[in-house]
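[recover] target loaded
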């Protein structure tokens, strides 16, 4: 298996880490090397540009971007790079993440962002989806993913206790 850094987890604020730490945990289970960064589209626009423009040069294969409220971070990254960007809507205090979900999902045609569910479900699924993308060209990750899914299936009891 390649030892390269494959996934970049990025969040608009420290407050996103309590959600996106779930993403990191799943990637750890798959032994997929990843980095974690705080980059804000509105508070650190120069950092955003520098970060997004260098993703391809650094051979990152998937970006997982979590943002809340007027959540433009995933869309702005996707505008600056053609590598896949998966967006995780962070639950906001005022609108419970519906604002984040719509901001990330409703990208106008031409610049796609793969949008996951609000909060922890989305954070976990983003890691699983990143693993699926990487698995296309990585048989080790592919095997780990199949094993993970089989174990999940096995864990579902036939009757409630
Ligand atoms: C954006 O605004 C981030 O995406 C974050 O999810 C949201 C709220 O940020 P904080 O006020 O918690 O720093 O910057």
């Amino acid at each position: 298996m390649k030892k390269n850094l494959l996934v970049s987890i990025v969040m608009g604020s420290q407050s996103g880490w309590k959600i996106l730490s779930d993403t990191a945990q799943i990637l750890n289970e798959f032994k997929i090397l990843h980095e974690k960064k705080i980059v804000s589209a509105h508070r650190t626009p120069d950092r955003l540009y520098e970060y997004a423009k260098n993703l391809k040069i650094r051979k990152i294969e998937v970006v997982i971007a979590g943002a809340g409220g007027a959540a433009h971070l995933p869309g702005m990254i996707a505008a600056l790079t053609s590598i896949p960007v998966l967006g995780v809507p962070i639950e906001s205090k005022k609108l419970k993440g519906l604002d984040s979900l719509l901001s990330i999902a409703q990208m106008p045609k031409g610049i796609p962002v793969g949008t996951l569910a609000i909060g922890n479900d989305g954070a976990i699924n983003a890691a699983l989806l990143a693993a699926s993308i990487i698995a296309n060209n990585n048989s080790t990750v592919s095997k780990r993913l199949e094993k993970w899914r089989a174990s999940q299936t096995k864990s579902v009891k036939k009757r409630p206790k």
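[recover] notes: The mean pLDDT is 97.
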